[in-house]
Amino acid sequence: MYFFLRNFSCLEISLTTARVPRFLVSIITTDKTISYDAYLTQLFFAIFLGASQFFLLAAMSYDRYVAICKPLHYTTIMSKSVCHKMVAASCLAGLLTISPGLILGLELEFCDADITDHFFCDPSHVLKLSCSDTQVIELLSFALAIITLLITLALVMLSDANILRTILKIPSAQQQRKAFSTCSSHVMAVPISYDSCIFMYIKPSAEGRVSLNKGAAVLTTSVAPVLNPFTYTLRNKQVKQALKDTVKKCSFAVLK
């Protein structure tokens, strides 16, 4: 469980780092220009890390499923090597998913238009600026978005359904609450991660995505990274106790 949380945190920090610092620099310096190479670099890492997150969420949901539905076999099924392979497979799946669209995108031609109405590099805006025929890329991006978002979401929901069925069969109410608390943080984080991205990318036309993406992008780049640490950690008793101990130590240090 904590192994996957650690990797999920690394992906989320990397995703935020790929977007937010450049945006803050633009606000501070009022320089809103960005080079084409920097634009493509940010676009690659943002899409790659974002796609990898969704595959990792599916892996995390399977980890929860094994922990609750097959607790006696957990250490055998979710061995250290299996966990490492699942994280590596999530990153590889994210890379393979975005590669076709990015490769085709490198062949796009651009005319005089060079202004994007967004605060970070978004693929919809690249397609809008291009004077090439982008219909193939739009349809390919739409298909890959369905694969990445809806299929991983279906896997998450399947795992959660089996977890819920198993929990309801537990005779002890106390054990039920304990099992619910184990997976509740993951269940809370899934809607935050999926809702905005489905809203942004499950649309066949890039033109239809442009005008609505900015508001939804705030949720994925700013709100979700702020909420997830509270969702995953502050519901844990050990983390709460460690936080209290740290606050006490800091208070004693200040008083001295």
How is the main sheet built?
Answer: none
**Fraction of residues in β-strands:** under 5%
From the structure provided, what is the oligomeric state, counting identical versus distinct chains? Answer: single chain
Supply the helix-strand structural class.
mainly alpha
Q: Which shape, going by the Cα principal axes?
A: globular
Helix content: over 70%
Number of strands: 0
Query: What gyration radius follows from the Cα positions, in whole Å?
Result: 21 Å
Could you give the order of the helices and strands? HHHHHHHHH
User: Any low-confidence stretches, pLDDT <50, length ≥5?
Assistant: none
Number of helices: 9
Mean pLDDT equals: 76
Q: How far apart are the termini? A: 39 Å
Write a brief caption for the model.
With 256 residues, the chain is mostly helical. Helix content is 82%, strand content 0%. The longest helix is centred in the first third of the chain and has 34 residues, at 36-69.
Structure description:
- Helices cover 82% and strands 0% of the residues.
- It has 256 residues and is mainly alpha-helical.
Walk me through the topology.
Layout: H1 2-29, H2 36-69, H3 74-77, H4 80-105, H5 123-129, H6 135-168, H7 173-201, H8 206-233, H9 237-255
Characteristic key phrases:
globular, about 260 residues
